[in-house]
Amino acid sequence: xxxxxxxxxxxxxxxxxxxxxxxxxxxxxxxxxxxRLGANENGFxxxxxxxxxxxxxxxxxxxxxxxxxxxxxxxxAAHLGVTPDHVIVGEGIDGLLGYLVRxxxxxxxxxxxxxxxxxxxxxxxxxxxxxxxxxxxxxDAEDPAxxxxxxxxxxxxxxxIANPDNPMGSCHPAAVIAAMIEQMPExxxxxxxxxxxxxxxxxxxxxxxxxxxxxIRMRTFSKGYGMAGARVAYAxxxxxxIAAFHKVRNHFGMNxxxxxxxxxxxxxxxxxxxxxxxxxxxxxxxAQIAAENGLRALPSATNFVTIDCGGDGDFARRVLAGVxxxxxxxxxxxxxxxxxxxxxxxxxxxxxxAFARALPQALAEARAAT
Amino acid sequence: xxxxxxxxxxxxxxxxxxxxxxxxxxxxxxxxxxxRLGANENGFxxxxxxxxxxxxxxxxxxxxxxxxxxxxxxxxAAHLGVTPDHVIVGEGIDGLLGYLVRxxxxxxxxxxxxxxxxxxxxxxxxxxxxxxxxxxxxxDAEDPAxxxxxxxxxxxxxxxIANPDNPMGSCHPAAVIAAMIEQMPExxxxxxxxxxxxxxxxxxxxxxxxxxxxxIRMRTFSKGYGMAGARVAYAxxxxxxIAAFHKVRNHFGMNxxxxxxxxxxxxxxxxxxxxxxxxxxxxxxxAQIAAENGLRALPSATNFVTIDCGGDGDFARRVLAGVxxxxxxxxxxxxxxxxxxxxxxxxxxxxxxAFARALPQALAEARAAT
Lengths: 370, 370
Hints:
Helix content of chain A is 42%, strand content 14%. The longest helix of chain A has 24 residues, at 269-292. In chain A, strand 3, helix 6 (119-127) and strand 4 (131-135) form a beta-alpha-beta unit. By secondary structure, chain A is an alpha/beta fold. The termini of chain A are far apart. In chain A, strands 2-8-7-6-5-3-4 form a 7-stranded mixed β-sheet, sandwiched between helices. Chain A has a 3-stranded antiparallel β-sheet with strand order 9-10-12. In chain A, strands 1-11 form a two-stranded parallel ribbon. Chain A folds into 2 domains: 20-45 and 270-368, Aspartate Aminotransferase, domain 1 (Alpha-Beta Complex), CATH 3.90.1150.10; 48-267, Type I PLP-dependent aspartate aminotransferase-like (Major domain) (Aspartate Aminotransferase, domain 2). Chain A has helices spanning 8-12, 22-29, 48-58, 70-80, 92-104, 119-127, 144-154, 174-182, 239-248, 256-267, 269-292, 313-325, 349-368, and strands at residues 35-36, 87-90, 110-114, 131-135, 158-162, 189-193, 215-220, 233-236, 296-297, 304-308, 328-329, 341-345. In chain A, helix 5 (92-104) packs parallel to helix 6 and helix 12 (313-325) packs across helix 13.
């Protein structure tokens, strides 16, 4: 008996996955982490109104979710000043990226992103046979001009940029992104990943004509709204592109309680403002912890702080390993020269205390091993 | 400015969707349904332990779910007597079907299913360019021999069968499915959709060697466990096939509360037994309601009852429209001659009361219009 006949593309794909979850690491080390600061989760938690809505929805979980996400989509449209036909709701930005890549990319199609940018996007591009062309960061920021040039040279169907950026925490002002859109080559689509936009300075999100066929903007309830485990994100684009998602998406893919909880979270603007203020304080505290250890925290427009460990990638990896070994889950950039840094999520004081305790020991250990 | 460059396949896909949700119908009619008996949801609801677990998880929804679904997957493996490497957890059977089709089907690849069987499977096959070959039902059951013959003739990569069947509620004994597996053509994979297995008579689920490369079996928490809105299902197959899912799936696609709730539901065997008993009584009541109206209820191995309206498809569609107009959401088979029937989910007495009130009026109306 032979096994199933996989597609040629699937046969060629590696078994590697973009991220190993903290639970996997906890099982390997035989203990839970004291602090969970590695996945840019928002430890300040969701709105109490979202919790109440999800609690109420739990007993009604026997019902499928509305496959149109009507109420949430309409509320988002009102919030954004667009029509509901400009909005698609999906299972996290990861889910939406997967659908989008599927819509555009056939084997061999060129795609442009930055070396060291979001690995899950790359996973989806590879998964549909796209060919990734990566440009380096400029300083510690994604480089719009280089992305546009690469797109022109390769004839890219898709260009990915995150603003603010992950994993470096940098951001471009709105005008830079707006200018980038004006320079887009014909037939290319810009994915503007704004997962962290709620934490960015005023003036980071460009005004975009929602009917502009050159750009799709993605946002999420995972970060600012503290609902990563719910899996709710949305994209805003011209209706023709939004309509195409319906041709391929898992129409009954949304969790009902998550849909209802996200709507409640969106309406609780006070909680979001409190969260942003708490994240701002946590960023300052992380910068202070870095300084106390003789390290430099990079400016952050996100809910994490990227800390330059002052050495090379091997040194930062040793620092990271030491921090993790002391029960604090953090991550770091994958690619040089950004991999001289570690990346620490903002969280409540107790979690940052654990990081503050672990860092000097990990640093000393890493220096001793140099 | 031109729009994005969709793949040729996507350009060729229709914009139709497999199912219109009850909420869409409620918005169109301007009122909520009195009874929700159209999607084979389980109105007896989830285990109180699952509700408690999801409620507890709501405040922790700021954490991503474990991308490996370790705890749930291990519990399922123990429950099924297989290893965790034989099990994949996903966003409903719909989600798992989408991943599976993607793994195997390239444009032009042949796939075999039954005329009138699960439309969402067909949606995924079309979405990846597969060519569907459909065989008719035999009586009101899927026809294993015809499916096998069609697979041989077409060289199908995939064969779909649901046992018990939706939308007719029929089921084959385990020996028929086991014999079907023995007759599978080389290189074909059988999808055995057991979404309704918890409601079927003893002896419906065949014993399958979990290392058998010819079959993947899919089950769900949507039906027996009353958690359709949670989006948790699982598949059991040989480890090589399970491993392939990891190459393409949305690793962070699971809702955390759903994962935790499903584990609690699995452990509450008492609640499942109570649900099965309630469904059994509801099936008897629906058969009685049918008989009181001079109609015949088909035998059901599921949590719904398919009722022969005694006429043709147009007549049944009029009956359905009349029932729906009276505030009772039900559905019906799409394809003749099965479309002579309406399909009513099992539910609490109050919901069945609403159906019992609506049916005679809808029937009288439909007969008057004949």
